[in-house]
UniProtKB/TrEMBL annotation, chains A, B:
Pfam families found in the cross-reference section: MerR_1
Keywords tagged on the record: DNA-binding
GO molecular-function terms, A-Z: DNA binding; DNA-binding transcription factor activity
All residue ranges annotated as the HTH merR-type domain in the record: 1-70
Entry-linked InterPro entries: DNA-bd_dom_put_sf (IPR009061), MerR-type_HTH_dom (IPR000551), MerR_fam (IPR047057)
Protein's organism: Amycolatopsis sulphurea
PANTHER family given in the database record: HTH-TYPE TRANSCRIPTIONAL REGULATOR ADHR, REDOX-CYCLING DRUG-SENSING TRANSCRIPTIONAL ACTIVATOR SOXR
Protein name: MerR-like DNA binding protein
Lineage, top ranks: Bacteria, Bacillati, Actinomycetota, Actinomycetes, Pseudonocardiales
Transmembrane residue ranges: none
Length: 204, 204
């Protein structure tokens, strides 16, 4: 298809498509002449992924490029691709002391990459708790670890296997876009639990 | 104690304490003369709560005021106080259509306030998924609902009961500060699950 049709099918303006081509987020089309190129369904898919990553998932152009590099890495296996894509979508956190995070993770018995952005995020989150003088009750912490393990196990079990693009789309968008869903579900579930504890007969 | 001692005990500068007094976040001390007031342990506690809410929890001055109003509301019962404090700490989201969120919550069987900021947050999060064309696999969604229910149940069961201040400190700081912990735990648990699925013999 021509660029005009690619634009019509995806709803992305031609000028924006040209920008993605210049930024090498979108692979070049097949050249038909010096000024004409043709695009195919792979371009449609890639364009939709770029839009989702830049729009709802709010990644930067640089992060999107790293996610796409993970898809296109010629020799990487699934684990390496996923790790690369996930790290690209993670926000770096500068932390002095990984000790508390590593203690939590040792208790959970998980395998993890101690140099990953995810572990640094956990350390930063624990440091903010400590700064606020807030201690998570022991049973709550156990519930968090158990919930995270069940969620992650289910998510990884459902990674699509038909292509690297599908796998990374699922895991990067799933990680980033599901986060606000999880947080909102917890807050509404707290409403339910508070009603049941403080208004068990449903008088309100 | 004098303001200088209140400052020394909490590490908050005198100018900052005066600002909180002017903003009526901190109740006035007991006046000893026209220019001298005395403060007590309740001021120390309140000051620590203000610092935690403004610092690690990143609430605005206006949000902190609403949280403190919930603590000080003379006639409110625990449920009303908690709801007021939680709403104060929630980020409002403008959404057109609560339908998808209400469908999810009906499925979960939870009691909830359809006009609350939490339900609007859920609707906004689901709208972002739809915009990205991302569908959560059914079993994953079930895992999210179950995890949220278990977490909320455990958290509400551990609300301290000795004072409204303690209850609200626990629930507001817990809600806000635990969110990044939960998200980081999920991301690290995904590492563990990915290792187990794609590298079961631990060769890396």
């Amino acid at each position: 298809m021509r660029m005009s049709e690619l634009s019509a099918r995806t709803g992305v303006a031609v000028a924006t498509i040209k920008y993605y081509l210049r930024e090498e987020l979108l692979p070049a089309g097949r050249l038909m002449s010096a000024t004409q190129a043709r695009y195919d369904d792979a371009h449609v898919e890639r364009l939709r992924l770029i839009r989702a990553l830049l729009g709802p998932a709010r990644l930067s152009i640089a992060q999107v490029r790293r996610v796409l590099d993970a898809i296109d890495a010629p020799e990487a296996d699934t684990l390496a691709r996923l790790a690369q894509a996930q790290h690209a979508a993670s926000v770096g956190a500068a932390v002095d002391d990984l000790g508390p995070a590593e203690a939590v993770l040792a208790r959970a018995g998980w395998r993890f990459d101690p140099e990953s952005a995810e572990v640094a995020q956990l350390a930063a989150a624990l440091a903010a708790l400590a700064e606020a003088g807030y201690e998570i009750p022991e049973e709550n912490f156990t519930a968090y670890l158990d919930a995270a393990a069940v969620i992650a196990e289910t998510e990884i079990a459902h990674i699509p296997t038909e292509s690297a693009e599908a796998a990374i789309r699922y895991s990067v968008l799933g990680t980033v876009l599901v986060e606000p869903v999880l947080l909102a579900l917890r807050r509404v579930a707290q409403q339910d639990a508070a009603y049941r504890r403080f208004d068990p007969d449903g008088s309100r």
